[in-house]
Design brief:
Strand order of the largest sheet: 2-3-7-4-9-18
Strand content: 15-25%
Radius of gyration: 23 Å
Order of helices and strands: EHHEEEEEHEHEEEEEHEEHEEHEHEEEH
Mean pLDDT: 94
Largest sheet: 6 strands, mixed
Helix content: 25-40%
C-alpha cells in the first residue's frame, strides 16, 4: 500500500523472497555514515543533518518531506515510491545523538575505521543504523528493483527526548503498514519488547542568607540531600515482569543548586535557596506516571511532615528551560512476535546469515530502555528494533563505534525484508 495520511489499514505481506539481496556497497555505506558523524546533531540542533539528508535523497529521486517539528527544527521523511499495490514499510532512525562524555581522546567528529569498527560520536546511537537503513533502500533503487509498496525512510529528531520526532510524525497522520527501527541491538536480535521511560524534576526550596548569617537560612542543597537519600528507599507499586526483571529502575541523573531562579553559581558566600535534580525512571507495564509520582511522594511527604522548613516540588516533564529535556513519556511496548513484519525480518535474517535469529522478544539490558516503537505501535503500526550493534571503546580513548560487518549484514536483511514485505514487480 501507499504510505499515507489518516487511518491505518491492514497490511498484506508480499510473497516470500528467495532471491539474493541486492549488493550492499560497503564503501558507500561507510561514506554516508562518516558524513553523518561529521555533522554534530545534539538535541535540539539536528536540522543540519536533516537538510544534508534531504539533499542526499532528492539527488537520488526519492520523494522528500521536511517536517518542522518545532520552529526551525526539521526532520527528513523520504519515500521510495512503489506501484501502490503492496504493503508499505517504514525504516525509522533518529538523527539526534547522546551527549559527549569526559575523557575521550578521539576527535568525536572524525570518522575512523579500525578493523571491523567504525568510530565517531553518535555512530552507535544511531547514525550507523541510519546509514544502514538508507543503504538498504539504496541497494534496491540502484539495482533497478521496483517495489509494489512504498518504502519510507523516516530520519527523525528527538528520540532521546522521548521520541518527539516520531510522535510528531504520528500526530500528523502519517502511516505505513509496518516499521523496522535500526537501533543498535546487534545482528541476530529482533527486539519487540521494551520498558517505559519517564523523566521528572524535583526542586527543593530554601531561604538564602549570607554565610555570616547562616542560622537564618535554609540550605536548599542540604535539603536535596535528604531527597536523594529518600529516593533510595522508594518501593514502587508494580507487578514484576519476567522478561524485564530489573525494572523498575530509578536514577538521579543530574543536580544543580544555587541562588535565585537562575541558580546563580558565582556567589558561594550566600546559602543556596533553590536546588533541582532530574530523575529518570524506567518502568514496566502497569505502572503509569501517576503511580510513579505517588510512590515518590510517599517517601518525600513524611520529610515535609517532620520538618516545616522542608519544601519540595515535583515537576514532570522537567522545566522547559533545561534545553534538550525529555518532554514525553515513552510507554512500555510488547509487540506480538507473530506479527508479519517480525516474521519477515526473522526469515530474511536467516536467509542472509544462514542461521535463525538469536533472540526475538526482549534483550537485556537493552530492553530496559524505551524507543520510538512506543509511538509507532501506539498508532497501530507493528514494529520492531533490528540494527547493527556497537558500543563504547574499552580504552581511555572514549569513542563510540559500530560493527561494520553488522552494518553490511543488517543492510542486506533490511533490503530483503523490504522486497519481501512490500513485494516486487
Amino acid at each position: 500500500m501507499t504510505a499515507r495520511w489518516g487511518s491505518h489499514a491492514t497490511a498484506r505481506v508480499g510473497v516470500h523472497m528467495t532471491a539474493s539481496p541486492p549488493p550492499i556497497d560497503r564503501t558507500r555505506l561507510l561514506e554516508l555514515a562518516g558524513s553523518l558523524i561529521e555533522i554534530p546533531s545534539f538535541v535540539p540542533d539536528e536540522s543540519d543533518v536533516a537538510w544534508y539528508l534531504a539533499d542526499f535523497f532528492s539527488e537520488r529521486g526519492y520523494e522528500v518531506m521536511m517536517q518542522e517539528v518545532e520552529p526551525g527544527r526539521f526532520q527528513t521523511i523520504a519515500t521510495l515510491r512503489g506501484r501502490g499495490s503492496g504493503s508499505s514499510l517504514m525504516f525509522n532512525g533518529h538523527i539526534d545523538i547522546n551527549s559527549l562524555m569526559r575523557g575521550g581522546t578521539r576527535d568525536p567528529w572524525a570518522p575512523t575505521v579500525e578493523g571491523d569498527r567504525l568510530y565517531g560520536h553518535g555512530v552507535q546511537n544511531m547514525k550507523g543504523g541510519v546509514a544502514t537503513m538508507i543503504e538498504a533502500a539504496e541497494s534496491i533503487r540502484r539495482a533497478g528493483i521496483q517495489l509494489e509498496g512504498d518504502l519510507v525512510l523516516a530520519c527523525v529528531v528527538g528520540e532521546t527526548q522521548g521520541g518527539v520526532g516520531t510522535h510528531h510524525l504520528m500526530e500528523s497522520g502519517f502511516r505505513t503498514d509496518a516499521a523496522v527501527l535500526a537501533e543498535p541491538f546487534g545482528l541476530g536480535n529482533l527486539v519487540t519488547v521494551h520498558g517505559g521511560i519517564m523523566h521528572f524534576a524535583i526542586h527543593t526550596h530554601g531561604l538564602s542568607a549570607h554565610i555570616s548569617r547562616a542560622e537564618d537560612s535554609i540550605h536548599a542543597v542540604s535539603q536535596m540531600a535528604k531527597v536523594i537519600q529518600a529516593l533510595e528507599r522508594v518501593e514502587f507499586t508494580y507487578t514484576p515482569r519476567e522478561n524485564l526483571p530489573a525494572l523498575p529502575l530509578l536514577n538521579v541523573g543530574s543536580i544543580i543548586g544555587g541562588r535565585g531562579e537562575d541558580y546563580i553559581l558565582t556567589e558561594p558566600p550566600y546559602i543556596p535557596d533553590l536546588c533541582t535534580i532530574i530523575v529518570d525512571v524506567h518502568y514496566v507495564p502497569g505502572q503509569t506516571p501517576d503511580t510513579v509520582e505517588a510512590d515518590i511522594k510517599r517517601v518525600l511527604d513524611p520529610l515535609a511532615a517532620e520538618d516545616p522548613d522542608f519544601k519540595y516540588e515535583f515537576e514532570m516533564p522537567p522545566p522547559a528551560f533545561f534545553r534538550g529535556r525529555r518532554e514525553l513519556v515513552m510507554d512500555p511496548v510488547d509487540v506480538p512476535v507473530d506479527e508479519p513484519i517480525v516474521q519477515a525480518v526473522a526469515r530474511n535474517h536467516e536467509e542472509v546469515t544462514g542461521r535463525p535469529p538469536d533472540l526475538i522478544g526482549a534483550i537485556l539490558p537493552g530492553s530496559y530502555s524505551a524507543g520510538d516503537t512506543c509511538w509507532l505501535w501506539g498508532a497501530g503500526i507493528p514494529s520492531l528494533h533490528y540494527g547493527p550493534g556497537g558500543g563504547f571503546e574499552e580504552t581511555g580513548a572514549g569513542g563510540t563505534y559500530t560493527s561494520i560487518s553488522e552494518m553490511v549484514s543488517v543492510a542486506e536483511v533490511l533490503a530483503l525484508t523490504a522486497m519481501d514485505f512490500c513485494g516486487t514487480v
